[in-house]
Specification:
mainly alpha
Amino acid sequence: MKGLTESPFSQWHQRLPELHALARPLLQSRAVQRLASVTFLGILSPRFRDVIDSPLWPAVKPVAVEDGSRYDHTLGVALVALALARKFDFSERGQRYAVAWGLTHDIATWPLSHTSESVFTAVTGMSARNLRAGILLGSAEVPERYRLAPILRDQGIDPVALASLFDRSATPADEELALFKQVVRSPLTPDTLEGMWRCGVVFGVPVMHPDEVVSAFLRHRGVACLDRRRMPAVIDFWQGKSTIYEQYRLLCYNYCFCKGFQQRGQVAMLGALLLVLRHLHLDHARVDPVTP
């Protein structure tokens, strides 16, 4: 694509053997692999700079860094989660759960990523959170080819235990999972660390690398703590994140809403769905309504 530089995120792909050793079948599942076709920044990705009139990529800015896909991001999150598990001296089982959390945190991401999430939720009547739980637990609402419960069980991972790491349910009885949940329910999740660093690279904002922030974590009497000697790395990360939110997030969301992106997207998707149903010779009387 014209005006894009080579992505600097290949470091995660170079470490694929580490993920293969713990979760190869999950990594190779259709639910995870499909994320390779979903842009990380959705419609705000620089790869669409010649398609839409975006304030993020004006013509006066001739070069942009490729943001990568949700699959690329997922690899990074899984490796950051693995680094955290190793920092906490987890068993192989605990590391496997950490990697599984990273590989599945975005499995319910729709095309065009979060910029289209509200549209798909309105059309399908299912939130991304509920869809992820359905994929993990093997819900009948999810096509069989995307259900992960059998793969997880074969890997020694309890789908219910993994799904509970994403919600506000009670603290797991397992000490390692309880410790890991403390982090993934905090402001410094592996998802946040990789995602903000990735955005920083794309937008040209200095953001501390996830590995530097992970090095600040400590395990002390069953509690996830931060080493005060490594706090400068955490503060630098937070400052970079704050800059991105202040300079870009408001701009992005204002752009989407002012342009009526979500409203037009919902209308377009409903129209496309009707065309598909007509092609299949289905009418509304033969289609079960989907309710939230």
